[in-house]
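**Fold tokens**
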Amino acid sequence: NPITDISPLQGLTSLTRLWFGRNAIREVNALQHMSRMESLHLPGNLIADISALGNLPNLTDLEINDNEIADLSSLSNCLKLAKAWLGRNRITDVGPLQGLAQLSNLALSDNAITNLNPLVNLKNLQILDVARNAIVDLAPLVTNAANGGLGSGDQVFISGNPLSSIAIGTQIPTLRNQYGVTVHWP
């Protein structure tokens, strides 16, 4: 039977890791007082509201792909976040991630993102997956690379986006040839 309710966990405030993947969980309010939580994995549930995660200052790894999440604003408080798997949700705005300087792995595939500008200053990015969104322009990624972010050995996954001719003809070659980024495009 899939788990639907994690409220019985709310008193376990010393938890540092939690995995409840592929269930039917809709609400995560029970986690809001687990300030020691470092690694949280809730893929494949029915979660739409992640506001309680804003109270997890020690969170470094977050896997909440395959849910119904649209609003990432609470993650702006998770300043230690280094790895975030947010694919296959309903995300359109990545603005709340712009201050998360520790992010090294960021997966945002299969959403409805159009604008990568908030990622310009994320200089620790090593893996960025924005495949199958609605991205046209890769200039923010070129700027990120020019400012010491993305570089040799780093990977960007962008297939399945309606990229402009400038993105295909200029920005992808610049990322590859000038900065050494492995760009996964067709």
DSSP finds two helices and eight strands in the chain. The helical segments are 139-146, 165-178. The longest helix spans residues 165-178.
